[in-house]
Amino acid sequence: MNGCISIGGTANLFTITEKSGIGALTGTIDGAAYGEPTSDFRDLGNGNFAYTMMHYFLDKDGSMVHTHDTAVMRQDPKGEGGTLEVEYTVVEGTGRFACYGGTFRSRGRVKPIEGESASGKRSVGVVRFEGKICRRTA
Q1: How far is CA 94 from CA 34, 55, 83, 116, in A?
Q2: What is the pTM (predicted TM-score) of this model?
């Protein structure tokens, strides 16, 4: 055993409020995720912005990964959503992720929900994860 776990997979995400979202995950973590911003948005110009986040990733086996993150949202020039890039830093793990740390990334497309039922700043999207986390040494 090399002490590292490759993180790979996909999340279909949906914002449930202006400040939080959920995702259905497949891949290394097969389950669900909850995330929310932990800072105000910082304007990067051209409709792009950066912010910090936190996530809880929950696997169907009961294992959990808690992360503190940096995110960048790059707006589509046509105004049809944009690209979301997130770097996740593990701060806690349980189950098969206990004693693991490190950073992994995701990148994907996000677009606002359209239609009469849309309210606030709700959006949907798909992101792809990649990277690895490794067992922490004492």
Answers
A1: 16, 14, 30, 41
A2: 0.90
Count how many domains the chain has: 1
Q: What is the CATH number of the domain that holds 48?
A: 2.40.160
Neighbours of 114 (CB within 10 A): 9
Give the pair of three-digit tokens for residue 51.
């912010």
Q: Per-residue pLDDT for 21 more than 60?
A: yes
Phi-psi region of 3 (alpha: psi -120 to 50; beta: other; left: phi over 0): left
Q: 48-59 and 31-37: which strand pairing?
A: antiparallel
Contact yes or no for 88/78 (Cβ under 8 A)? no
User: Phi-psi bin for 47: left (phi > 0), alpha (psi -120 to 50), beta?
Assistant: left
